[in-house]
Each structure stands twice: as structure tokens, then as C-alpha cells.
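Recall the central idea of this unit: under ordinary conditions, the amino acid sequence of a chain determines the structure it adopts. In this exercise we apply that idea directly, starting from the sequence alone.
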Amino acid sequence: MPSPEFEALLTAIRASPRPEPAAGADGVRQARESMDLALGSIPLADGVLTGETDAGGCPAVWVRPQGGAMDRVLLYLHGGGYRAGSATAFSGFASQFAAVMGMPVLLPDYRLAPEHRFPSAVEDVVLAYRWLLDEGGYSPGRVVLLGDTAGGGLVVAAMLAARDLGLPQPAAGACLSPLFDLTASGGSYDKFADDDPIYSRAQALAAAADYLGEANPREPLASPLFADLSGLAPLMVHAAEREVLVDDARSLVAAVLAAGGRANLEIWPDLMHFWHLFVPDVPESTAAVLGVAEFLLTYIGA
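Accordingly, the structure predicted from this sequence is:
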């Protein structure tokens, strides 16, 4: 059974209409403003500091716990449908991982659509990853990737791009309620359309239209579900049982395993899209964050 804290949260969310994407420049502006307002209100975890940097040409934000280990790093890729979100807005949420894992987090401010279309976001994340290896002095075995929604898709896209460029894989990656298929063809979009109070096919297709432009939605670095998924670092994928993106999660993990890779799939019952966001106030969010941290630390070392 869901906790009282989660039930109260879900009731509050369902009391408001589900956000649907508006078209055009005004829609993009509204999406960015609302996401920055909502995410930017999340406070930093105790003992965590932030600072701006330039990660190989991609602006980024460091989120560092005081006294944390400096020989390993988490590269966090924010969500927002490739057209909204920012490193600053997601710093509060990312600070929970910095505190729990005792290590710095780097959040790239990758370029957003429609001003910068595919593959700009992937290119920026690879720039930041390469910068960590070359300028930051991090061993690839001491770098882990984490992302939510579109950022979860970027985690796998960045791994694919790194592989194809001959770069070493990071130690591991984790994806929270990820968007892996910009064709939005998963059956769960219809099956759970009335159950998911956060995300919808309309949002996925709006993200795809702004991000892709004329590009094929089945392009592997845009929709990793259609990629050759061999040779990737170990993955963990989280999804809620009745969210519209759950089929993306199931299909991607099945494809990684079929390609001979390592992937853990966790489907959480009775929750909602990207429930992790409500850490530390909701027990299910805290448990999920701790589970992801434990998985990543297994590969990166404590």
C-alpha cells in the first residue's frame, strides 16, 4: 500500500488538470517557466554547495557535498522533454544523490529544442563526459550517469554515442521513468492514459516534434529503443507500474539483455511518473533514490 505521504501528494496532483503541451514558442516558454519554478523551489540537501563551470564548452553546474570523495563523479542529465529544464532547476533534486552517495554531481546545461534540435543535446552530454575524462582527470570507471524522463533517454544515447566514438563506457548508468522512444508507440500510452497524472502521449510527441525537426524519430541516438544496444555499461531502469512510459522501460531493458548486456528493471507498483522527485518527503521516493544510489555505488566503488 502507498504511504500516507504519497497518497496525499497524489490527491493534490490529481486535483489539478494534467499539464498538456501548448504549441509554438509560447508553449515552450511556458514549459520552461513552469518547470524552472517547480524544480527550482527544491532546496539543496544539507551540506551541499553549488557552482557554475564550463564542461568542455557545455555550461554546467557542480553540486558538491562538503567532505565528499573527489575521485568519482555522477553526471546527471535532467528531464524536460528536450525543450525545458535546466541544470540550476534540477540542482536541488540532484543534491540528494550528492549527499547520499558522498560525491560530486555535474549537471550539464545541454542545449534545448527547438532552438537547438537533435543531436545537440547528445553532443553536449558527450562533451561534458569527455571533459570529465580529459580535463577532470576522472577514470571512466569512476563516472556514473543518471537521468530522468528525456534525461533517461539521454543516458543511453550518450553511452551509445561514446561507444561509437571509441570512448570508454562509464561505470554504470541509471534511468528514472525514461523516454526511450520518440515514436511514442508503446501500448502503455493508451493503457494507462487515465492513470498517469503527470505524463502523456501528447507531451512525448510535442517533445519529439520540437527536438527532432525533420529527423527520423527512430534515429538510434534520439530513440535508443531502436539502437544496437550491445557494448553498453550496466544499466538500472525505474518506472511506475501504471505510468505511460512503462513499456519504454520494459522494452529497452529486454533489448539490452538480448544484446548480451547487463540491465536491471524495477517496476514500482501504485506510484507515478518520476516519483523520485519528492525525496525526502515521500518514503517511496526516498527508497527509490537509495536503491539507485546503491546500484551505482556497486559499480563505481564506495
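The first helix runs from residue 4 to 14.
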